[in-house]
């Protein structure tokens, strides 16, 4: 069972649905926190968690001081678990769950975000991830950060010119890529 690694929610155990998601491991979330922490201060950041699953990435960011998070998840079971995890962390006043597809969310106008997590299911191919990345800049604040988590066997998606890849690292079967809006 995953747990929050650091910050005000540290140690809280998060629920995970039996089969509909692949939660980001504690080790990978800790690595993401370190990658971001050495480059930016997320205090007060507006976070967008696409393919939110359990909500662990957004909740970890809120625990570390982010101001507000929008979690986008289309799977009904995963969305129910994300709601439960938001409640477990007492983050209901700072987190909003949107139950719809990532593509439909990005097709509509929204606030701009300082930090975006993308953790698509393995079944989402590189072309679909490339399309999501292409739609993302319209939703980003200046100098926003984007964290992409994907399987190590997945082909690398195309990054739009508006996002500069600044770091990448593999953790077992998981690859983390960090990019910044230019």
From TrEMBL:
Enzyme Commission number, as recorded: 2.1.1.171
Question: Which SUPFAM superfamilies does this UniProt record tie to the protein?
Answer: S-adenosyl-L-methionine-dependent methyltransferases (SSF53335)
GO molecular function list: 16S rRNA (guanine(966)-N(2))-methyltransferase activity
Q: Which UniProt keywords apply?
A: Methyltransferase, Transferase
PANTHER family the record matches: METHYLTRANSFERASE
Per its record, how is this protein called by name?
16S rRNA (Guanine(966)-N(2))-methyltransferase RsmD
- What is the species listed in this Swiss-Prot or TrEMBL entry? Gordonia phosphorivorans
Recorded name of the encoding gene: rsmD
